[in-house]
Amino acid sequence: MTANPSRRRYEQRRQVLRPSNNSFRRAYDILRRTVLTMEPGTKLIESRLVEDLSASRNIVRLALQALASEGLISRSSKV
């Protein structure tokens, strides 16, 4: 049986999209706990989250994308 090169590329891309570093995990865990205790419909403001978590905007965005993919939040564009 041979390794599937497209599967390997998929796994590499997946790791880039969902980094396993500590700052991502920390932001994700904090945001997940926060979201689970919030009232439905409460808005999350990305710039405030960046400041509150002392994390980069990219890390916060990735954590929000992960939460959205789990169905815990819905993302909307700026108005």
Task: Outline the structure in words.
- The protein is built from four helices and no strands.
- The protein has 79 residues and is mostly helical.
- The model has no long low-confidence stretch (mean pLDDT 81).
- It is globular.
Give the H and E element order: HHHH
Q: Please, what is the average pLDDT?
A: 81
Number of strands: 0
Question: So what's the overall shape?
Answer: globular
Largest sheet: number of strands, sense, barrel closure: none
Structural class: mainly alpha
Low-pLDDT runs of 5+ residues are none
Distance between the termini: 52 Å
Question: Which percent range fits the helix content?
Answer: 55-70%
Count helical runs. 4
Measured on Cα atoms, how large is the radius of gyration? 15 Å
Percentage of residues in DSSP E strands: under 5%
Name its key features.
single chain; 79 residues; mainly alpha; 4 helices
What's a concise summary of this model?
This protein has 79 residues and is mostly helical. The protein is 63% helix and 0% strand.
Topology:
Blueprint: H1 5-17, H2 22-37, H3 46-53, H4 57-69
Helix pairs in contact: 2-4
